[in-house]
# Entry
Amino acid sequence: MRLVFLGTPAAAVAPLTALVDAGHDVELVITRPDRRRGRGSALSPSPVKVAALARGLRVGHRLAELDDLDVERGVVVAYGVIIPGALLERVPMLNVHFSLLPRWRGAAPVERAILAGDAETGVSVMTLEVELDTGPVHVERRVTIGEKTAAALLDELSRVGAAALVEVLASPDLLEHPTVQEGEVTYAQKLDKETFHLTPSMDADLFLRTVRLGRAFCFVNERRLHVLGARRSDHPVTGAMMRADGGDVLLGLANGSVALDEVRPEDSKAMSSSSWWVGARLDVDTARWS
# Structure
C-alpha cells in the first residue's frame, strides 16, 4: 500500500519500521523540524527522521508537502500536530494511539494511566478524525501496567502498536469495519513541571507512581533533588522530615514513608541515596524536603 507516515518521537519508530518491513511503500515521512536538544546549540533530528533516513525514505517537515502526493492512506503516530479536516478528506488516515479509547484521549495517555493507578492500558488503532481521538477503532490490544516505568511501558506499547497497525492494513475486514468507541471518556491532559514535583502531602502510591514517570523531583533544604528510584518503607517518618536508617534514606509522607534508592542531585550524576546522604551532610534534626 502507498502510504505517508507522520510521527516524531522514539515511540513512533517501531510502527514506521514495521510498515517498511511489511512491504508497504512509504512515499514520504513527515516529522517535526529539527530542534535543539539539551544545552548545545546544534540542531538534532527527531528519532523518526533518523530512522527514516536510515531506511532511505524521503523526509519532510510540512503538511503542505502532501498536497501533490499520490498515496492511498496516511498513518499517524505521535506526530504532535493536529491534522486539518481538508487533508483528512483527501487522505484517510489511521492513528496508533497508546490507550484503550475512549479512556485517556489526548496528549499524555501513558503517563496519565500510570498516575491514575490503572491496572492496564493498551493500543487503539483508529480512524483519525478532526476531533481529538474520537475516531472508530479498528483493533485494540491490551497491556498490563504493573510496576513498569513510563519509558518501559511506552516502549512495549510502541511494539504492540506496530504489530496491530500492520495487522489492520493487511485485513480488509478490519480496515473497512471499525467499531465506534464506547465507554466513559477521560482526557490525558498535557504534563507540566508540577506533575513531577514530589511533595510530603502525597500518599505513598502517588509518590511511587510519579517516580515511575521518569522526571520526578523534590527539594531538600531548597535544593532540587531528582528521584530516580524509590520503594515503600515500614519505618515511621513524620511528614516533610527525612532521615537515614540502616543505609536507607527515608522521606515522610501523608500516610507513611518511602525509601529512596537512586537520586540525582542538581548539576551532578546519578548515585545511590546513601552516597548522596553522606555527601550532602544534612543535619537530621533540621533537614526538610518539599
About this structure: Residues 150-170 form the longest helix (21 residues). The chain has a mean pLDDT of 94.
